[in-house]
Amino acid sequence: MDLNLYQYLLLGVLGIAAGIVNMMAGGGSNLILPVLMMFGVPADIANGSNRVGVLLQSVSGLSGFRKAGKLPTEDLTAILWPTLIGGLCGALVASFAPVAVLKPMLLITMLSVAAFTFFKPSALVHQPGVLPVKVADNPKSRIALWLVGLYGGFVQAGAGFVMLPVLAGMLRYDLVRANALKVFCTLGFTLVSLAIFIWRGQVWWDIGLVLAVGSIIGAKIGVKTAISLKPETLRWILFVMTLVAVLMALWK
């Protein structure tokens, strides 16, 4: 099927919005997936095509965080590998199963994150001087990172919300650096999952590339905004965007 010019323009604008919110908190895919399905794009194609924009916004955002000196590098490999393996498992399941079966899990997960950010702010916004914890020193974090990758590989929507409590809560990174690591991990499992969706013929490149252009622009704006905001402000943005994402998931 072919979209018209206005639909492509709307997707470009949504790509910008998704890039901005994904660099600060998450939930960008919750803006895009319902609209794609409203346009008549099958759920599996929407899920696969959306990954093109996520991939390129992650490259753009990661570059911005790295240039600003906000990307921690000392434990990157240990953080990345569990999410890659989880992403591969999740993408394989998603390529053979309807995305609709995940809706209850999506809602429960995001509501849990909203409650976590509201009732346990100290887990996300730490006092000055708190040092990060290495994955090797917290074995449970490996399982949590694998589950994050599994979820992200299955459906991108809400993956950032799930990842931040692990990176900021369990591994004790401040929210800006946790966001940078989140983008790094997202790039990793998106590469894996996109390869699966391409192999399965579940990517429409016209949609994916339009989303990608908007997402790259949005990511550049989002990184600059995230770096300049206070941690407490970022926490509230995460809380509000989580609730918005829940409403979008209910709507779709």
Word description of this protein:
- With 252 residues, the protein is an all-alpha fold.
- 76% of the residues lie in helices and 0% in strands.
Keywords:
252 residues, mainly alpha, globular, transmembrane, transmembrane helix, transport
Summed up:
The chain is mainly α and 252 residues long.
User: How many DSSP E strands?
Assistant: 0
Radius of gyration: 17 Å
Q: Quote the beta fraction.
A: under 5%
Helix content: over 70%
> What summary fits the major beta sheet?
none
How far apart are the first and last residues' alpha carbons, in Å? 21 Å
Q: H/E series, N to C?
A: HHHHHHHHHH
Structural class: mainly alpha
Arithmetic mean pLDDT: 81
Number of DSSP helical runs: 10
**In the residues, how many domains can be counted?**
1
Unreliable runs, pLDDT <50, ≥5 residues? Answer: none
Overall geometric form: globular
